[in-house]
Predict the structure.
Amino acid sequence: MIHDSILDTIGRTPIVRINRLAPAGVEMYVKLEAFNPMSSVKDRLAHAIILDAEQRGILKPGQTVVEATSGNTGIALAMVCAAKGYPFVAFMADSFSIERRKLMRMLGAKVILTPAAERAVGMIARAKAYSEKHGAFYTEQFDNPANPAYHRNTTGPEILQDFAGRRLNWFVSGWGTGGTLTGVGQMLRLARPEVEIVTCEPAVAAMLAGKEWNPHKIQGWTPNIIPSVLDRSVYQYNLPVADDMARDVARQLASKEGIFTGVSGGGTFAAALEIAHTHAKEGDVILAMLPDTGERYLSTFLFEGINEGTDEDRKEAVMGALTLYLDFINLFIFLLRLLGGRRN
């Protein structure tokens, strides 16, 4: 398949069945947003916002684009801006993974780090001030209606098409900007009202549940604001997920299913598993959104304790080395005897 631009490859991500982790009697599926060109669901958001701004004439050729991001939106915007010729500046808290900064810079972006203590509010304030000072276009991912609109127009219809004529009982998604949850949720509510919609958030920062925000390790989930684009009427269930549970389930998906997702994907699937075990009926079908790839978390606790050296058994390695040493000695003795025989 030939495309005119990398942007034409955004969307139409696959839905894959879970075969080993799903409990008996329940079908589980995941939508793999890592199949987008920059490996996350935020490719959709970035493309949507830039297209909308161009169509409305508020983004001019060559104008700088600015956003506050935990990483995935910044990476996606860096890709879109590179493809379209816009300079891009990302404001990101210094607590987010280093690989995200490097990916944005590889794509030609400028990355300005903000103190983690300022949280999302600090990133947003600095990005907004920068855009006003420099006449840049501030994308406002948390408040831009083009964000959920794109999911209503693409992600939601993709799911409906893939499950046309098939049973679907549950849809599970975490929230960061709220765009995926809102856009897909609204479309499912309209077209398949029998589908129960579930959201999930960090247990220590369950803001939709009315709790105070606290620092958590599920990057991309739950900033310390509730975005204006998030439609809180769209979901029926809200499940808290512990940081360690999100990490552990992401690892299980990799080792048991061959599905390599990030911590937020692990958190989403952890919530889906809870639905499968405690709420689902016999024969129910559950779909969970996996927002990105595990490669975005190489420097985080997702890979904590993962061995970097050999997995060969140490005793076997020593015995192997000893065998090679003895073979070398025997060969050396053989050569000495051979040379001695020739001299005689």
